[in-house]
UniProtKB/TrEMBL annotation:
This is Aldehyde dehydrogenase family protein. Residues 45-491 form the Aldehyde dehydrogenase domain. Pfam families: Aldedh (PF00171). Belongs to the aldehyde dehydrogenase family. The keyword Electron transport does not apply. Keywords: Oxidoreductase. Coiled coil: none annotated. It comes from Kitasatospora purpeofusca. The keyword Iron-sulfur does not apply.
């Protein structure tokens, strides 16, 4: 049955900013994608001031899914003005009232999770098993979690009555489109900010569907605005003089450009950038369990994961045993149709990303590392890459230093724990790491020496909205998630 629009929130003032009625239409079915989309500004879908349209394709079939507007500086200006106009009333609402909207959004996401999971898989290429069991539950959990904070900000540790910043300009990547949106929008709204968000060029559809959910939830106009486009649209947003807060997730080069742009302004900035995580396997680790963690660490979401365990550091004495088991397990991975529930590895998100992965793996071979992949079948059309591992990798190799952002694992070895730590820390990044060992003391010893924002022990790629996430070094600064995630949106 189609979920019903929820009742109006209690205590809602009539008319004005709050006079917006929930959209009457029933939620579209999963496959119901419009042929073209405008922006979502001031609570309505509007045409762009420009005439340029971009296309989003299904990376598993290369078919065009929809056209969408390439946001101009004028579009961004309109969206920021709408967010500014909404800010006074939204920030003045009691936290308990803002929480009701967030709880409502979270519930609608749960109700529409199948539709959203399918849409995300079609637009991004990721397996439906992941969108259904990982992305969507985490998206809803994030809204539920920050809804809980909205009326407790006085107790968040930032003193009494902490103030929102104003209008947040948020730019997100394509690897977890809806989850990155949730990481950005939920804490911003809970703390009383209003938002203009730009989704990535290759994955705009779930953000646009989220705009419908904002209408269904009766969210006041202008509190959330979505402007689609490319890098120029993102740059217009982060450069806009009436934006108070810039939140960016994406590549380190773009993050660096934004940091320069924001320097000397009064904007508060948080950056979640790239990574090159080490997954460290000690000789006492339960190897079967470690193999599962390594596979999850690098092949989850096609390796399009900033915190992917893309470097395996294995203790020399167990290298042969571990690699034999890992290769056997990689041989069972199924690459193919993202909508097939048995698929382990879906499509690479774009032709450009496939070209980047191909170039870096070619460099790995040229530099002398040994490449191995199981002989799995790949579909004829679409963008695909076999799960791949490289042995004989040295620390100076590009595949040991640069983020590949694909299903490619670089294997290095170590003899002592000190050597493991030194090698793990020997990259410009510092986002995450994994440790596999039976010894609790070794977990603590190693974790305290790793320059990584997140360290997993005997697991990998585990996320929870209560837990802060973010990097050291060139992986960025600021934290998202948990109580720490509030700070990015408060004047503390
Ligand atoms: P980017 O090229 O950096 O793009 C990220 C977003 O920024 C996109 O929406 C992009 O628009 C936009 N953008 C591009 N140029 C811009 C500019 N000059 N000013 C403002 N915005 C601009 O990264 P990507 O290729 O989408 O994502 C992959 C990278 O993101 C990887 O390096 C990955 O590690 C990192 N990442 C990090 C995290 C965390 S949590 N640390 C999470 C996910 C991804 P277009 O899409 O139109 O180019």
């Amino acid at each position: 049955a189609a979920p019903q629009a929820p009742a109006e929130p209690a205590g809602k003032p009539a008319g004005g900013l709050f006079g917006y009625a929930p959209a009457p239409e029933s939620p579209a079915a999963a496959g119901d994608i419009a042929s073209s989309y405008g922006h979502f500004i001031g609570g309505q879908f509007v045409d762009s001031s420009g005439s340029e349209a971009l296309k989003t394709v299904n990376p598993a079939t290369e078919q065009v899914l929809a056209e969408f507007a390439r946001g101009t500086a004028e579009d961004v200006d309109r969206a920021v003005a709408a967010a500014r106009a909404a800010f006074a009333d939204w920030s003045a609402l009691p936290g308990s009232e803002r929480a009701k909207y967030l709880f409502r959004i979270a519930r609608i996401i749960q109700e529409r999770s199948r539709e959203l999971a399918v849409l995300e898989s079609i637009d991004n290429g990721k397996p439906i098993r992941e969108t259904r069991d990982v992305d969507l539950p985490l998206v809803a959990a994030h809204f539920f979690y920050y809804a809980g904070w909205a009326d407790k900000l006085d107790f968040a540790g930032y003193g009494p009555n902490p103030k929102p910043l104003g209008v947040a300009g948020q730019v997100i990547p394509w690897n977890f489109p809806l989850l990155m949106l949730a990481w950005k929008i939920a804490p911003a709204l809970a703390t009383g900010n209003t938002v203009v968000l730009k989704p990535a060029e290759t994955t705009p559809l779930t953000a646009l569907r989220f705009a419908e959910i904002c209408r269904q939830a009766g969210l006041p106009k202008g509190v959330v605005n979505i402007v689609t486009g490319d890098g120029s649209t993102g740059a217009a947003l982060t450069a806009h003089p009436d934006v108070n807060k810039v939140a960016f997730t994406g590549s380190t080069p773009v993050g660096r450009a934004i940091a320069k742009q924001v320097a000397g302004t009064r904007k508060k900035l948080s950056l979640e950038l790239g990574g090159k995580a080490a997954n460290i396997v000690f000789d006492d680790a339960p190897l079967d369990q470690a193999v599962e963690g390594i596979v999850n660490g690098i092949f989850f979401n096609q390796g399009h994961v900033c915190c992917a365990g893309s470097r395996l550091l294995v203790q020399e004495s167990v290298q042969d045993e571990l690699l034999d088991a890992l290769k056997r397990r990689m041989g069972t991975l199924r690459v193919g149709d993202p909508l097939d529930k048995n698929t382990d590895i879906g499509a690479i998100n774009s032709a450009e990303q496939l070209a980047r992965i191909t170039a870096l793996t070619d460099a790995g071979e040229a530099e002398g590392a040994e490449r191995w992949s199981p002989a799995c079948e790949l579909p004829g059309t679409g963008f695909w890459f076999r799960p791949t591992l490289f042995t004989g990798v040295s620390q100076a190799h590009r595949i040991a230093q640069e983020e590949i952002f694909g299903p490619v694992l670089s294997v290095l070895t170590f003899r002592t724990p000190d050597e493991a730590v030194a090698k793990a820390n020997n990259t410009p990044y510092g986002l995450s790491a994994g440790i596999w060992t039976e010894k609790g003391s070794r977990i603590l010893w190693t974790a305290s020496r790793l320059r990584a924002g997140v360290v997993w022990a005997n697991t990998f790629n585990k996320f929870d909205p209560t837990s802060p996430f973010g990097g050291y070094k060139e992986s960025g600064y600021g934290r998202e998630g948990g109580r720490h995630g509030l700070e990015a949106y408060l004047d503390v």
